[in-house]
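RECORD TYPE: inverse folding
INPUT: structure tokens
STRUCTURE:
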């Protein structure tokens, strides 16, 4: 975890530290373990990671008065139920993305957060890499932007024998490559450019008879007419976690690549 991410976590859990209360991590898989490691590194007291299915069966842990923030690190299909229950119990929520498996569920959680007045955030951790922050501060030097382009390539679902709950539509949702990894790139593109994506055309591809997409090509239009292209794949051999974002403007261009996270190319 880089120092910028550490500072974010510290700010997000400031009330936990000051009030001698604790965080609760729900979800005992990879994401839950990583959240627990981050909390431990920052010296923030926490409980967990707890099995999400067990908490669904017995949600009393979400009502614990000593808990002020809940980390939802469960499978996607459980996000709405767990985060909604935590918000209604008066807890702040840090939720892994995607927020829900459909728009209706996401809108439900947004409404609950507004009604309860609790802090609710998504774990877009790539935002806090130092060179991403640097790119955002330098964006004006590129002049008016006209193009965003990039890719996010992984290979962990390349083979027919590669299995994970994310490939199950009932648990992961109708979208996989776009919702799982594309969401990070799209978030960075909007964050750094300061523009919203307003239209998308996508071509999806599936391998090994899976119901959700393994790869996708996206054409994007931003709020001011800027265009964008994005290639996504979770079956690109040799690419472990290879995200790249490039922005082209009237007077300059910039590229950041996750495989070389401490470098920022400017031209």
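DESIGNED SEQUENCE:
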């Amino acid at each position: 975890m880089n120092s910028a991410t550490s500072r974010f976590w510290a700010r997000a859990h400031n009330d936990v530290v000051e009030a001698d209360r604790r965080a609760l991590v729900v979800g005992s898989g990879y994401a839950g373990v990583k959240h627990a490691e981050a909390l431990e590194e920052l010296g923030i007291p926490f409980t967990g990671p707890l099995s999400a299915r067990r908490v669904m069966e017995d949600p009393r842990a979400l009502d614990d008065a000593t808990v002020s923030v809940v980390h939802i690190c469960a499978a996607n299909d459980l996000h709405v139920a767990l985060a909604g229950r935590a918000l209604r119990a008066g807890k702040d929520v840090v939720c892994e993305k995607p927020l829900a498996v459909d728009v209706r569920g996401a809108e439900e959680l947004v409404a609950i957060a507004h009604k309860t007045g609790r802090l609710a955030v998504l774990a877009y951790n790539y935002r806090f890499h130092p060179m991403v922050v640097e790119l955002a501060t330098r964006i004006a030097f590129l002049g008016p932007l006209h193009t965003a382009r990039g890719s996010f390539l992984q290979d962990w679902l390349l083979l027919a024998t590669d299995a994970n709950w994310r490939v199950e539509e009932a648990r992961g949702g109708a979208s996989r490559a776009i919702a799982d990894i594309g969401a990070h790139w799209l978030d960075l593109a909007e964050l750094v450019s300061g523009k919203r994506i307003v239209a998308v055309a996508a071509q999806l591809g599936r391998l090994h008879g899976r119901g959700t997409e393994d790869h996708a090509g996206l054409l994007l239009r931003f709020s001011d007419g800027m265009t964008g292209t994005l290639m996504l794949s979770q079956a690109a051999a040799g690419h472990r976690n290879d995200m790249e974002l490039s922005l082209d403007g009237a007077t300059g261009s910039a590229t950041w690549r996750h495989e070389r996270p401490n470098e920022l190319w400017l031209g």
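NOTES: Residues 177-193 form the longest helix (17 residues).
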